[in-house]
Design brief:
Rossmann fold, 2 domains, 6-stranded antiparallel β-sheet, 11 helices, 23 strands, signal, dipeptidyl-peptidase activity, Putative acyl esterase
């Protein structure tokens, strides 16, 4: 009798092959058609010889190559089946050799998870080496890309490997600390999700194990030193490849503020696409080979920068955004151009108690943003029911004609906390005549010390159309279930009369 654990391992290892066979059957061209593609399951030596398991999708009926080579590292907690559908379309439609591989330490690949550390990033280059030698790859036409963990690896590899000419980074991070520890506030739901997925589907290495220990002991600041080398923002000046970035406004893991800053620092050919949704939801179905706007742009991006196609993408304005509450794509020459002007609204003095939850919340990671993206159902609130003893509420003027929030709203608060550590959560809502609000954007900040100080807080970037007759309402409270806050129950926070909010307009 085969032990249960062995059976489970056989099933786990066989699943990628079964899924790949199904994808191949669904996407394969008719037998008499040419060109076509072939799918093979291979073991590729990564950095230090570590075996990495991969699906290699190569074009057929197009001669012996060389072909443009695209390498796609898998996402955190996902295996090499992730991109086989998209790879088949790229191989069949454009004649690329595409390698979709399981990142080090996960599923069928060997090694340990090092959180995009040196070995994981070097694996991208080792897979490129193999693709050039064994998959008829063209060394002058190499691209990399992926979703989430694969996207971050791709950007980091592009900073180190000059052979990489084009990158498609979807739902990526560019600054790990800003993503998971915004303004010294732990994004607890995101961290818990990543830790759980890492342990369930992978083999955490020392870096990840030590980081979890520090987090459990409330020493999150001790984790920060691992961020700079693992953050593409630290290496942006070394990236010479053409970079396409696609992220969602409501990404619960990697919020868009770090993305827009990184995009502005890139100096080569670049394209930014921001659209409704949560982490990986905007491009999810495209990875499986289904119709998808983001992956269509990815195909055109690689087509121009690797395939030499005159498809016009190089002439389009580089910043493409869809309003978070619905609407068509809008194009701008830069991220700064998204904002045409700003309106400053004064905030009256107020005082609230801390540590008490209110009905003002940022929502649930992955769930709330997905509802926004797929169904246009925002995180809502009834502003008359917000406890004014636990939250400050400032109502802006009614917008008698339609307008938009377009860019990065900024709040300046003169704050006097009553406790040694206090976490504030700022929410910007669009509110109708009945007081019912939809969350436009938000941001946390944790303050240390009890003295009066000025806090300049940039909310997350957004493009959001405000309906005629509605108003913007700013709410600040001290508890949010998404985050691990530091507010003391029974203490207080005072806001000075010289506070204000600056709203970007389109």
């Amino acid at each position: 009798m085969i032990p249960v654990t062995v059976k489970e391992d056989l099933v786990r290892r066989s699943l990628p092959l079964l899924l790949a066979a199904l994808v191949a059957l669904v996407l394969a061209p008719p037998a008499q058609a040419a060109p076509g593609f072939a799918v093979a399951y291979r073991t590729i030596p990564g950095e230090g010889g570590t075996p990495l398991k991969a699906f290699v999708v190569t074009p057929t009926g197009r001669g012996s190559g060389p072909f443009p080579l695209i390498v796609l590292p898998s996402s955190w907690g996902v295996n090499n089946i992730e991109y086989v559908g998209a790879a088949a379309k790229l191989a069949y439609g454009s004649g690329y050799s595409v390698i979709s591989y399981t990142s080090r330490g996960f599923y069928d690949s060997a090694g340990e998870v090092d959180v995009a550390g040196p070995d994981t990033v070097a694996d991208v280059s080792r897979v490129i080496d193999w693709g050039l030698a064994h998959a008829a790859g063209d060394p002058a036409r190499v691209g990399v890309g992926g979703i989430s963990y694969g996207a971050g690896q791709s950007l980091l590899a592009a900073a180190r490997d000059p052979r990489i000419k084009a990158v498609a980074a979807l739902s990526t991070w560019t600054d790990l600390a800003r993503s998971l520890y915004p303004n010294e506030t732990v994004s607890a739901q995101a961290v818990e999700l990543l830790l759980a997925a890492g342990k369930l589907t992978g083999r955490p290495g020392p870096v990840l194990r030590d980081a979890e220990t520090a987090y459990r002991e409330n020493r999150f600041a001790d984790v920060l030193p691992i961020s700079p080398p693992r953050s593409p923002a630290s290496h942006v000046s070394s990236i010479k490849a053409a970079v396409l970035i696609g992220n969602a406004w409501n990404d619960g893991l990697f919020a868009p503020g770090q993305i827009t800053d990184f995009f502005g620092a890139l100096t080569g050919p670049k394209r930014l696409m921001l659209s409704p949704g949560d982490h990986a939801t905007a491009e999810l179905f495209g990875a499986a080979g289904l119709p998808n706007e983001i992956w269509t742009s990815v195909g055109r991006w690689f087509g121009h920068h690797l395939g030499g196609e005159a498809n016009g993408i190089e002439r389009e304005l580089p910043v493409q955004v869809k309003p978070n509450n619905g609407g068509a794509w809008r194009a701008y020459p830069s991220w700064a151009a998204v904002t045409a002007r700003t309106d400053k609204v004064a905030l009256a003095a107020d005082r609230i108690g801390t540590g008490w939850p209110t009905i003002a919340e940022s929502g649930t990671v992955l769930v709330s943003g997905a509802l926004q993206g797929f169904l246009n159902l925002p995180v809502g609130v009834s502003t008359p029911l917000i406890d004014r003893g636990a939250a400050a509420v400032w109502r802006g003027p009614v917008q008698w004609s339609g307008t938009s929030v377009s860019g990065t709203p900024r709040v300046r608060l003169t704050v006097t906390p009553g406790a040694a550590r206090t976490t504030l959560y700022a929410y910007l809502y669009e509110v109708n005549a009945l007081g019912l609000g939809a969350l436009v954007t938000h941001k946390p900040v944790t303050l240390t010390g009890t003295g009066t100080r000025v806090v300049d807080l940039a909310l997350e970037p957004v493009v959001w159309d405000v309906a005629a007759g509605n108003r913007l309402v700013l709410v600040v409270d001290t508890v949010d279930a998404r985050y691990q806050g530091s507010s003391t129950l029974g203490s207080s926070v005072t806001f000075g009369a010289d506070s204000w909010i600056e709203v970007p307009r389109g």
